[in-house]
Design brief:
This is Eukaryotic translation initiation factor 3 subunit B. This protein is an alpha+beta fold. Helix content is about 15%, strand content about 35%.
Length: about 725
Amino acid sequence: MPEATNHVDDGIDYSDIENKYQVQYDDGFDNLVVVDGVPIIDKSKHGKLMDKVVKEFGKKGVSIKHDDIFMPWDSASGKSKGFMFIEFRNEDDASHAIAAIDNHPFDAKHTFRVNRFTDIERYADLDETYVEPQVEEYTPREHLRAWLADPHGRDQYVTYRGDEVLIHWHGKPSQSEVAYKPDWKDFLYVAWSPLGTYVATLHRQGVRLWGGSSWKAQQRFAHPLVKLIDFSPCEQYMVTWSNEPIMVPEGAIQGPQYFSPDDEGNNLAVWDIKSGDLLRTFSTYNEGDPPAVKKQMQWPVLKWSPDDKYVARITPGQMISVHELPSMYLQGKKSLKIEGVVDFEWCPLGEKDKEDIMVSAVPGAKPTKKVRENKLVYWTPEVANQPARVTLMGFPSRSILRQKNLFNVTECKLYWQNQGDFLCVKVDRHTKTKKSIFCNLEIFRMREKDYPVEVVELKDTVMDFSWEPKGERFAIVSSNDPNLGNPGPGVTIKTDVSFYQLDHGKNDFRLLRTLSSRTSNAIRWSPRGRHVVLATVGSSSKSELEFWDLDFNTDDRKEGQSDWGSGIQLLGVADHYGVTDVEWDPSGRYLATSASAWTHTLENGYAIWDFRGQELVKHIQDRFKQFIWRPRPPTLLSKEQQKAIRKNLREYSRAFDEEDAAEESNVSAELIALRKRLVDEWNAWRTLRRKELGEERLQKLQGKEDAKEEIEVWIDEVIEQTEEIVVVD
């Protein structure tokens, strides 16, 4: 670099101007990176390898050309040495390439490792003398599940009204309060993550996740015009969808957390929640699809395995593609080719399955039994002479566990029990003339050998089906109303609600009870089981809520009585006009109903009920949109600890009874104080008014004495009095 000199011409010093505009020459190598892990090839494959390298860098948003790459060759063998040099325009581009490409899998056998050229020299000349590192002061981070440590054990819920979001504590009347009032602006809607760790807001620029006791922003995902999101069951990943295709303008920010030119045209994105990195994008539309087909998209498009290891999507009629996480590569490098496939679902993991997985993950631990493999079920319709078929498959082994042929099938719906103990396939069938529809329930018992199937035949159309959580019962809503399928304005469909339970003696599902002539069209089980609410949702004329207890009198059934339905008891009936959403809280003690302005504008708001149907809270609010309970993660207590708590529940309940009594006494004292204050205010007001009235009367009397008026006095005087006696014969 030339040295700056002071020039003096005609007595004028230009040194300050030269120093200000002096050109700095960059003679360093900070813009040069070394890529290791490159396949060793001969010169005949050089062009193809360069094309592949440029493409892989482009997928990560790093733009390079062939001229930027230098690959050293071994003169003896004529092959490459397994690494290459890439020169970038500046240091910032090199830093971006290192962050995006380092540890990137190039193929099944090679993974790129990227380092700065100057770092290699620095590490080669590194002083090996050990120097004690300086210990930085530890700054604890806020816990993302701090709300679980609430001393009162309260739950939370979020409400969205107009442009205002409020996060509430829910407990006893004296403990219910607003927990946080955020200032989030310009968003579409809010959503909790499955375990309640985050709350998400959808903005025009993308998605933001909030959490912790301070409710600070924890992560953001840049997906413009996002409309829908979906979390993986373990909260490791998230899917975003927009009806608008991805567009990457020229000069846009590039990096692992942003879209690259290769993502253009897609509209579905998969993200890593902790790092915020984009894993992959897809398109939910095919070229040439008419608008009607685009509107029929089923959500979620991607379906997660319960352990977050796989995510799958269906190409209707052709195949199911299962991708591994976090690489998003096709599992086994190929999709499941299934001709005519219509739908599929993953089998949930039960609590026992999760315990087995945790035990197997402990180093050196010997699991008591083999960890249960993931399973999925799919169905295919009748084609030519082939019957419709339901197939149960193990994954990733891809072994067929069970198949069931079905005939005269119109449609199938798949319903898993939340512990993975049972699978119900609701089969809508038609008669040979195809003039009428009836229903069968094909129920797979998943914990038994060879997966036996029980069939429940029904004559009516089933409108809703729901398993009891952690139980062996299910409920259905059925109807034979002639208006079903084409109800007119103001027409209410008559329905029947039936409860069934597994009879272990006969290995069949027995009808417990049928509730006829209802208008209910939705079943909502308590997350703890036993209690269920039957609701009429989305009707303009009916909005009834029925609260039922299916174990109200369990002693009769346990003593062997034949009437299994004797324990079913109606606890209460309520009404919430215009109800659109019904949701239990995680404890199963409270139910929330809401009427959203997104559906109609009549008496919007929400109400909270106890499990008996007693109304606790009701708020009528215009422009009310959402009410969502905050989910709770699974308990950390073992089965033995839970049993010990149930065994000693009376001892624990004493403390709660004392708290309740203290609260009642406090409420009574507050009520007495309020009444006394009101009486004192009333007496003070009366005393004041009496004083004011007395002063007014005194002023009037004084005014009368001062005024000169003529007063006439009338006096009655008796002049004569005669007494006459009349005798009547």
